[in-house]
Structures are given as structure tokens and as C-alpha cells.
Specification:
The chain has 218 residues and is mostly beta strands. 2% of the residues lie in helices and 61% in strands. The protein has a single domain, classed as Immunoglobulin-like (Sandwich), CATH 2.60.40. The strands form three sheets. Strands 1, 2, 3, 4, 5, 6, 7, 8, 13, 15 and 16 form an eleven-stranded mixed sheet that branches. The chain is globular and about 50 Å long.
Amino acid sequence: MFRAKRRLGRRVLSALALAAGASAGAVDDFDMRSADAVNEGALRFLEAPPAAAVHHHQNRVRITPDSLRSGWVELQQCHTHMDAVPRSQITFREGYVRGLGIDTFSGIGRAWVEGPSVQLKDVARGARLCLSAQTRALRDAGNGYYNLSHGPYMRKFLDGYYPMHVTLDIEYPAAQLRLLDVSPARQPGLAHDEAPGRVKLDTHFEGELRLLFQFERR
């Protein structure tokens, strides 16, 4: 979960997004639209990207032969075009992450690992952060089937959702797994390319996005 907070008097404005997935920003960093135009949570894919760059959440996931036994996969994650906030954090579910480390960052005053989270201080508009870890994200569904879930991804401020860009690149052992299904399905604003041992997804959207990849053991 990515959490950002900014205090205005006694009121705390918070923006939430998940796991390790998302972004949020302070009130002065959003392109605030009229109340009628703000997305209130329904998932909507954007056929054309926004004119200005928005928070880009990039993931590279590697499923190894050992992942089929353990459920642990390798993760490399980058956040670019981040929103400006004084304090924020990227959190992972306790017990579902190990080897969490910060690879690079820029436009951020301070970044450090604290338990199953990455803590950020003084994030400037357009900041960048890359991290790596292992996550227990692959689930054995039984009878030779496996599920890989990602999300929800979101960019939220108060009760409104704003555009976000997500790319996901998954590598898997083609000799042992066959990709059966990707959900949501390919559609305008959501592209994914498949090849033996690899699937890539690219989308711009508003709302909350949950991704599910289903595999079958060969």
C-alpha cells in the first residue's frame, strides 16, 4: 500500500493505494476537476493517455521454477512522475515480503526501509523510486492451476480517483507453466501482449484496478 498524508489545520488529507501499488498526492499537486467529473471509484480505462504525465507504476515480476513450490516471486518495482507529498509510504502485507530494498531514488529527501514498508520523506513532484523484493504472490489453486494477483492499483485523493499509468511485465518458466487467462480482458485502454514465458500489460485508467493472471502447469 502506498499512503500519503498532508495536514491542513486539524484535518488529515490522505490518499491511499495498494500494494505495492499505487500513488497519491497532496491537494496542490492534483489536477482538481469539478465534483461531477471526479471518478468515485468505478474502474474506467482511458483510451487516450492524459496530456500530462501521471504517476507511472512499473512492475517486473519473475516466476521461477521454485516459485511453484514456495509461492515466492521476484519483484522489481519503480514509481515515476510521483505526486508531491511531505510524507508517504509503500507498504507490503506482513509476512508476504522479504529482502525488501531500495535500489535508486531521486527527488525524495529521504527514503528508508522499515519492516515491510518503504518510508519516504519530502517527495517532490516528478520524483522517482525503484525497489526490489521477493513477494509471496503466486497461489497454488490446486489441480495444477496457479493464480498471480496484483493490485488494487489506484491514485486517490479524498473521495476521488485520478488517472494512473501501470505497466506490468511477468516472466514465467514456459516449460512448466502455460498462461490461461488475464483479467480484465484486453480492451481499449488496456493492452497486453503474450508470448511463451512472458506477458506484458500496459494501461491508463481511473478507479481501482485489480489484475489476475491464471496459469496451468504443463
